[in-house]
Amino acid sequence: MTATPVSLSMPTVPRRRRTPEHVAAAAPVAGAKKVLLAAPRGYCAGVDRAVIAVEKALEHYGAPIYVRKQIVHNRHVVETLEERGAIFVDETDEVPEGALVVFSAHGVSPAVVRSAEDRGLRTIDATCPLVTKVHREAVRFAKDDYEILLIGHEGHEEVEGTYGEAPENTQIVNSPQEADTIRVKDPDKLIWLSQTTLSVDETMETVRRLRERFPNLQDPPSDDICYATSNRQAAIKKIAPQADLVIVVGSANSSNSVRLMEVALEYGAKASHRVDFANEVDESWFEGVSTIGLTSGASVPEVLVQDVLRLAAEYGYGTVEEVVTADEDILFSLPKELRATLKEAGDSSRGLGGRGQRPQS
């Protein structure tokens, strides 16, 4: 069967912008202009690891390399890898028998693994280790006959993968409102797990409402919302009250990027917008704005943030203050299937994925 690439909308066509003078005349700004730049921002260790996995697979096995779903939810990353020979597909039955397929950072269900095995596909599992942790929790608690309330967005690839580990024991809770109506089999044998990229505040509100109805609801052994999601939300919470405008760099299908935009508004930003690329920034957003907050989702390369900074500087926001709320130094080993190939080839150039490990270009 011929592979059908995952469809991506075309980047916004560059348009003629109004000049900084025109923007300033429309709504003058009193005082100095500046950008508050969130740190940490951008790539997390799981994303870095997954992207390196595809890059290394292309280097050592040659194109084409098939990838089930987008390796990470970012248009720039996906399009760049496509140019190098990666083919993104929706399902494993679109991959030629015997070919190599990479599972995305969001994880897959056991049914997807079996489908790949049935087709004789070679696989590289680039699932983020923090997502794998949640999968293992689901398996463990289902084996002990717990009912699992999985807090997350139905239809999201990560949620589909986790749900698929124990579908007969799992219910998905999409929102705090759903927590008020969900029915369970045994309120005394109940545990909640969550998608790793959710709003921390909204997840805790969902848990609070669930616990009001089911006092014996158990917590997961450790936080399911990943460190990168929590850290990026903490940074934008600190910036938002000071910002007339927050710009989040990230794709529309990136859950953690969308949450950053929402958190900015919840914590006091006067306006918040999400863009994939600097050319999507509307210069009218700068009218009357003295302070811009800038951050990016966990699947966004730093080069895209720098493009926005350069654009902002053209409109008078040349002063950049980095707001640091955490220091990230987490590293993950590359997928075991790939490590064996790299070792055999004597390639020791990149064995880990994590913050600060990739060139910022």
UniProtKB/TrEMBL annotation:
GO terms for molecular function: 4 iron, 4 sulfur cluster binding; 4-hydroxy-3-methylbut-2-enyl diphosphate reductase activity; metal ion binding. Its EC number is 1.17.7.4. GO terms for biological process: dimethylallyl diphosphate biosynthetic process; isopentenyl diphosphate biosynthetic process, methylerythritol 4-phosphate pathway; terpenoid biosynthetic process. It comes from the Bacteria. Pathway: Isoprenoid biosynthesis; isopentenyl diphosphate biosynthesis via DXP pathway; isopentenyl diphosphate from 1-deoxy-D-xylulose 5-phosphate: step 6/6; Isoprenoid biosynthesis; dimethylallyl diphosphate biosynthesis; dimethylallyl diphosphate from (2E)-4-hydroxy-3-methylbutenyl diphosphate: step 1/1. Belongs to the IspH family. This is 4-hydroxy-3-methylbut-2-enyl diphosphate reductase.
